[in-house]
Design goal:
By secondary structure, the chain is α/β, with parallel strands linked by helices. Helix content is 45%, strand content 13%. The protein starts with 6 loop residues before the first helix and ends with a helix.
């Protein structure tokens, strides 16, 4: 059977006759970061089934200018549009552009597929609060929307957050050696223990904390806004990070650009992709709980959640009555011990669904659920989707 032409092929066939010319598409993202590599991987995943683009992709570092070669001519662009000058230059080309940046700019706007920054901020805060933190900080090397969302999420809980922007917004040239004392002073000024969300690079926080004599994660817990295995290898301590799902951003951006090249109108609102979870490493592997008995109860749940576990057993281990344990859980975490058991099991299941190909009933059994039906019902209540649909969505299938 003869395959019908795709939307892109129809739009690039000169005069409507002869063989279709492949659409030329430029990808303008930093390839040195896990985020950028994930974008490229998602685009490539889409193109495995849609082989009709010629892709321009040049290796770029985080400080490289995302600009097109002077003589490049093409039909579409997928890019991280993060500054006004880049936005204006792309608008002048008068070709479809899909933006994969969550940075909000004044001026030209493009159809956008990006990480759901609000969801990422709330996921980071939940990760900290689950560990008992009540004081928070935000660290970044540039002004980003995530800072506003994180501060707002903290304020909604009636808690405090201090932010440190490095380099200063005044435009001073960044100097690592000169700025570290300022960062040390900031860390020392925060109430302890404190949990800090870092945009992009959390290593300066570790260096400054070491210089200030602060212990990580006991006094300063650090979580990065995205998990990068390569950066972890360069860090004095493995850094926890949000799993942002940039592969799905790339896949959906490619699908959207394909629609635009085929003549479909752009969507009005950005397509926001939620993060998939938090990869916990040493930098947040602690419990900031001053109540020793409650800390023992939480640790016991996390160590034993995959086996049959009852609230009376947890209370006995913590040296508390069931009534007192329930009350302290409500006061500190705003949930019951039973809800904490289910939450820990769901988190283990989410990770297993993403990292293994085990059948759903096997995932249910290995994560401590008594039956597949109970697992599916609990998962649906927690995430408003089934385990199988969650696995498929997160893997861009």
């Amino acid at each position: 059977m003869k395959r019908s032409a795709t939307p892109t092929e129809k739009s690039t066939r000169p005069g409507g006759t002869g063989p279709a010319r492949l659409a030329r598409v430029a990808v303008l993202v930093e390839t040195s970061t896990a985020w950028g590599r994930g974008i490229v991987s998602g685009i490539n995943d889409y193109l495995r089934h849609q082989q009709h683009w010629q892709v321009l992709l040049e290796p770029r570092g985080p400080n490289s200018e995302l600009r097109l070669p002077p003589q490049w001519r093409g039909e579409g662009i997928i890019g991280r549009v993060a500054d006004a000058s880049m936005a204006k230059s792309l608008q002048a080309l008068k070709i479809p552009v899909v933006n994969v940046s969550s940075i909000e700019l004044r001026g030209p706007r493009f159809p956008t597929v990006a990480i759901d920054v609000k969801a990422a901020a709330r996921m980071a805060l939940d990760h900290f609060i689950e560990r008992g933190f009540q004081h928070f900080g935000f660290f970044s090397m540039q002004k980003v929307h995530l800072r506003d969302e994180f501060e707002a999420a903290v304020a909604e809980r009636g808690l405090d957050c201090s932010s440190f922007l490095w380099p200063p917004q005044s435009g001073m040239e960044a100097s690592w050696n000169l700025s570290l004392p300022r960062l040390e002073h900031w860390l020392l000024s925060l109430p302890k223990p404190v949990a800090v969300l870092a945009w992009g690079n959390g290593r300066p926080l570790i260096y400054a904390g070491q210089a200030a004599g602060l212990s990580t994660p006991e006094e300063v817990a650090i979580l990065t806004n995205y998990y990068d295995e390569l950066v972890n290898e360069l860090s004095p301590m493995p850094l926890s990070g949000v799993q942002i799902g940039s592969e799905r951003v790339g896949f959906e951006a490619a699908a959207l650009l394909d629609q635009l090249l085929g003549g479909k109108p752009p969507r009005a609102d950005p397509l926001l992709i939620p993060p998939t979870g938090v990869v916990t490493r040493q930098s947040t592997s602690t419990l900031a709980i001053h109540d020793v008995a409650l800390a023992k109860a939480v640790s016991f749940i996390r160590e034993n959640a995959i086996r049959p576990l009852s609230v009376p057993e947890i209370a006995r281990h913590a040296g508390l009555s069931r009534c007192v344990l329930e009350r302290r859980f409500r006061e500190t975490f705003h949930r019951s011990p039973g809800e904490e058991i289910r939450r820990v099991r769901i988190e283990k299941a989410k990770l297993m669904l993403l990292e293994t190909d085990l059948p759903i009933p096997d995932v249910a059994e290995r994560c401590g659920f008594g039956s597949n039906a109970y697992f599916t019902d609990s998962f649906q209540r927690a995430l408003q989707t089934s385990p199988l649909r969650y696995r498929n969505q997160m893997r861009n299938r």
